[in-house]
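Write out this protein's structure.
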Amino acid sequence: LYYATIMMPYAGHVGRHLERLQALDVHVILPSHGPIHEDTAIVLDAYERWTSGSGKGARVLIAGLSMHGSTGALITALAEALEARGGDVQVVDLTAADVGAAAVALLDARGLVLAAPNVLNSAHPTALHALTLAELVKPKLAFTAFMGSYGWSAKPLMKTAERLEKLAKKSFEPILTKGRPTAEDLARIETLADGIIAALTGAS
């Protein structure tokens, strides 16, 4: 939790300092605040794993919320499609998760899918809060994707998708539905799941 919420944005700096520590015989870690660590390997190994990204598996984080079930149907469909393909999926309900839990989930995620409905002329503010958090902590992500539903205009959701795209080198085409997803929309979810699995396995 401490690394995810405080140190993750500075992974490059932390990694360089870890290299300096490799030349030392460290017996105890005495931080200026927080607990004393006598088992230094637990801390140093974890920080090396987090800064390098080598400890990430193939987990996909789907973070989102739904107001009337339309976006929720997209979330459920994608989670089930990924699981059917052997994917490791974590779904976080942004209406229930605290900020720290969301940050920890980002730390372990290879890819992030953000899902949100439109509210007036914006994506849902809770989803925007989560996106702002992700922008601040700068997780190491291989890809991102955005899903959402709207009633009048998809433009606000597209703006959110464009922000999300900047968090990773690869992003998938947003899936936006007018109201509840149709059979065609659900077919697009299946295609997205194929693309995500390919990205996780290095096939694309």
